[in-house]
Write a structure and sequence with these properties.
By secondary structure, this protein is an alpha/beta fold. It contains 16 helices and 11 strands. The strands form 3 sheets. A 6-stranded mixed beta sheet has the order 2-1-3-7-8-9, with helices on both faces. A 3-stranded antiparallel beta sheet has the order 4-5-6. The protein has a two-stranded antiparallel sheet with strand order 10-11.
Length: 503
């Protein structure tokens, strides 16, 4: 009788261990729900979303820290304490942050909104809110195996004072430009707004709670199902978006029947997607492209299925995605010419006001790349002429002006040296005068002391050349690199977006 009981106990323990991946690695999570905002109407669902996610992650083996309705200082402290917790667990740690609440993009940079903000102008948000890049930088500052950020933060902008001058939703953050091992998921696509939902949880969190519970499902497959589910529930109005630089496999729950990891899929072209979608029912084709989430898939779909309801929705997604990619590129370049080019391509969008403001702000900023090229090798375009300029006066970006400086030994002709006509040389006395006090002062013809003082200087070397009057190489490099370094600190986005400074 003892042996069957022992056998059943061991079997149950084995199932429990195999269904919780947490025993194979350290898992820690920070869950934040922001509902009770002081200056705007409260959000009912973030508190519910945070509670449900805390329970799910606890079941998945995470050591969960839950927090709600945080002020700016409290949110900073929680993130800092969480990073210290990750560091204490060691490099073999999965660190997950779930945030539900308001989020905004200001000047192409994403911010998480504490409950105590009360902005009167756009400039108040960077002072009162939390930069998403600061959260990313804090997490990547400590060794960890995997970092996962889940953001149900793309709701509408609730602040009337700045609602008309900021872009909709959140900007692109590309995890591939940051530290490897990062996965980011947003409740809707860049530039769009997410719905809070009419149930106990938002559509995004509801779909995530369902998909993540399936044993053996990889994180990539989990969020494919989240995209499809949210798209269906909202009738195409909302489609989640994610970006990944993961190098290790992750599953919320593993199981005895967990499938083997699939080979990395090769990105398909528009023509390949067109052949894949041809002849399929429109509902099935729409589900395929939503699960894939690439521009190529959507472009093939809108070429085949133009009729409502799926055709116009796919076209809107594609146009918005391309606009947000162009906006992300302009923010990364961060020059007046880059914002002006964006305005030429998209003259009337929710980002027009911001683009014009940033263009004016940067219109008279020095062309650092061109100045550096001029200091090292002449004109930026290598032809002796100045870099082309736009009507506003800002140099247009060119491949030459952005290329690394070259030296004469690398093939670029050296600047000619100009010979300088020097005055006739004076021959020094064969015996230079010795130190004062050794010889008596010279006297004139009648024996009076001579008042003339003769100063002897070393003659210039023969065939003396003076370089052409161009800026000093040493000074040019010092000034150029200093300005470039300073500008890099203002990087916003992506990107882990990324944006200037990135993470």
């Amino acid at each position: 009788m003892f042996r069957p009981v022992l056998r059943q106990t061991l079997l149950a323990a084995g199932i429990l261990l195999s269904s919780h991946g947490a025993f194979a690695e350290n898992r820690v999570a920070l869950v934040i729900g922001q509902s009770n905002y002081h200056s705007v109407v409260a959000l009912p669902n973030p508190a519910n979303d945070a509670g449900a996610m805390s329970r799910l992650l606890g079941d998945a083996g995470f050591d969960v820290t839950s927090a709600a309705d945080l002020s700016q200082n409290e949110m900073r402290e929680k993130v800092s304490d969480f990073a210290a917790k990750v560091a204490a667990k060691g490099p073999d740690t999965v660190a997950l942050v779930f945030y539900a609440g308001h989020g905004l993009q200001i000047d192409g940079e994403n911010f998480l909104v504490p409950v105590d903000v009360d902005p009167k102008r756009e400039a108040d948000i960077p002072l009162q809110a939390i930069r998403l890049n600061d959260v990313l930088n804090t997490l990547t500052s400590v060794p960890s195996k995997t970092r996962i950020l889940l953001l149900d933060a793309c709701r509408n902008n609730p602040f009337p004072a700045i609602n008309g001058t900021t872009g909709r939703g959140l900007a692109i953050v590309d995890a591939k430009t940051g530290a490897p091992g990062t996965f980011m998921s947003f409740s809707t696509s860049p530039g769009a707004e997410a719905e809070d939902g009419s149930g106990a949880d938002s559509p995004y969190t509801t779909a995530l709670l369902s998909a993540a519970k399936e044993p053996g499902l990889s994180i990539e497959e989990t969020f494919k199902r989240v995209r499809v589910s949210v798209n269906k529930v909202t009738e195409g109005r909302q489609t989640p978006w994610d970006s990944s630089s993961l190098t290790d496999d992750f599953r919320f729950f593993s199981g005895p029947s967990a499938p083997a990891p699939k080979p990395v899929a090769v990105k398909r072209s528009v023509d390949q997607w067109r052949r894949e979608l041809q002849g399929k029912p429109v509902e099935a084709a729409n589900e395929l492209i939503v699960a894939d989430g690439t521009e190529e898939a959507y472009e093939a779909f809108v070429g085949l299925f133009a009729q409502p309801p799926f055709g116009p929705q796919a076209r809107e997604w594609l146009d918005r995605h391309r606009r947000m990619v162009a906006w992300n590129n302009a923010v990364i370049i961060n020059t007046a010419a880059a914002y002006r080019a964006f305005l030429v391509q998209y003259p009337d969008s929710d980002l027009t006001v911001t683009a014009r403001k940033l263009e004016d702000r940067l219109r008279y900023r020095p062309n650092i790349a061109g100045s550096l090229a001029l200091a090292v090798g002449g004109a930026p375009n290598g032809s002796g002429a100045s870099a082309p300029a736009s009507p506003g006066g800002a140099p247009l970006p060119t491949n030459a002006s952005l290329a690394a400086p070259t030296c004469p030994c690398g093939g670029t002709p050296a600047l000619p040296l100009r010979k300088v006509d020097l005055p006739p040389r004076k021959h020094a006395d064969p015996e230079p005068p010795k130190r004062a006090g050794v010889r008596p002062p010279p006297r004139g013809p009648r024996g009076e002391p001579d008042d003339d003082v003769v100063v002897y200087r070393r003659s210039p070397p023969p065939d003396y050349y003076e370089p052409s009057p161009v800026p000093s190489i040493g000074i040019g490099i010092g000034m150029g690199l200093g300005r470039i370094g300073g500008g890099g600190g203002d990087y916003r986005g992506g990107g882990m977006v990324g944006r200037r400074g990135g993470y």
